[in-house]
Amino acid sequence: MCDEAIQVDVITTNRLALGTAQFGMPYGIVNRTGQPDRHTVTALLERARTAGMDTLDTAIDYGDSEAILGKAGIDNWKIITKLPAIPDDVADVADWIGHAVAQSMQRLRIDSLHGLLLHRPAQLHEPRGYKIHSALEQLKQRGFVQAIGISIYEPRELDELNGQFNFDLVQAPLNVFNQELLQSGWLERLNQAGTDIHVRSVFLQGLLLQSADTLPERFKSWQLLWQQWYAWLDQTGLTPLQACLRFVLSFDEIDRVIIGIDSPQQLEEILAAADGDLPDLPADLCCHDPDLINPARWQAT
After folding, report:
1. pLDDT interval class at 25 (50, 70, 90)
2. Helix (H) or strand (E) holding 256
3. 63 — phi, psi (to 5°)?
4. Measured distance CA(206)–CA(105) in Å, rounded
5. Are residues 84 and 120 in contact, defined by beta-carbon separation less than 8 angstroms?
6. Which residue, 64, 131, 121, 149, is CA-closest to 93?
C-alpha cells in the first residue's frame, strides 16, 4: 500500500511527448488495431506538433519505428532513441555504439539526437560499463547527442548504479498503480541533481483504460485493486484517461510524459483529458507486485 494519499495539481499538455513504439510494431497488451499506416503517422505528427508537443520517443528495437519517422519528416522535433543490449562478443564498444547511432540517425534522416538512452542499463555493471558510458559521453562531446541517459523498469536499477555515472536524462515508468519512482525518493533526487525525468507506462500499456468487462483475464488476479480503481473513478466522475494523465502531469519534477497514440481520435481525447483537476488519489491504489506493474514480466506470468 502507499504511505499516504497524494495531493495533485495539474499542468497542461505542453509536457506531453509522443511515444512511437506502436509506429513500428503492434505494441501494447490491449492493442487491437495494430500499427497505424504511414498517412496516419504523418497526420498524428502534424497534429501533435500544432498542439505544442516537441519530443518523440523511439528506440532501435521498436521495429520499423525509426525508419517510419524518418520518412514522415521530423526535422522540427526533439528525438530520443534507445540503444539495444550490446552483444557480449563486441570487442570495441565505442565503435559498436557509434555505428549503431549512425545507422539510427540515417533511418531517422537527422544529423543529431536530442537524447540517447541505454535500453539495458544493467550493462553498466559489467567490466566494460565505464567504456559504454565513455562512448556515450564521446558522442555528446562530438555534438551527435545532446543528452545521454538510461531507461529503467524500476528504481532499484538506479540504486544499483550507486552514483557511479552521471545522466542527463532518465526515463522510468509511473502510473496510479506503479508509484515506485515517487516512493523510492528517486523522483525528487533526480530533479535535485538537474536530471531530466521522462515517464512512460502512464496507462500501464492500456490496462488502466480498460473497463471491468474488457480487462484481460490474466490480470483479474488483482481483483481488489481493480475494484478500488473503478470505485474511485465512479466516485469522482473521472474517466480513466483523465485520471491517468492528470496524475502524472501533477508532478512538477517530471519534464515529459510519454504517451502512445495510434489514431488521431486518441490524440484529441488525450489533449482534452489532460487539462483539469484531480481529486486526491486513494492511498490503497498503489501496487508493488512486479507481475502486474512491470510489463517486462507479463510474458512470464
Report:
1. low
2. strand 256-260
3. 55, -125
4. 30
5. yes
6. 131
pLDDT for position 33: 54
> When comparing pLDDT for 297 and 146, which is higher?
146
Residue range 90-112: mean pLDDT, rounded:
97
Question: What whole-number distance in Å separates Cα of residue 137 and Cα of residue 166?
Answer: 10
* DSSP, residue by residue, 68-127: HHHHH--TTSEEEEEE-PPPTT-S-HHHHHHHHHHHHHHHHT-S-EEEEEES-GGGGGST
Q: What is the pLDDT of residue 31?
A: 44
Report the candidate in 228, 192, 235, 196 with the shortest Cα–Cα distance to residue 212.
228
Averaged confidence pLDDT in the chain = 91
Task: Report H helices in the chain.
Answer: 21-24, 38-50, 65-72, 93-108, 129-141, 156-161, 180-183, 186-192, 223-236, 240-249, 264-273, 290-293
Task: For residue 292, give the 3-state DSSP assignment.
Answer: helix
Residues paired with residue 281 on neighbouring β-strands, in sequence order: 6
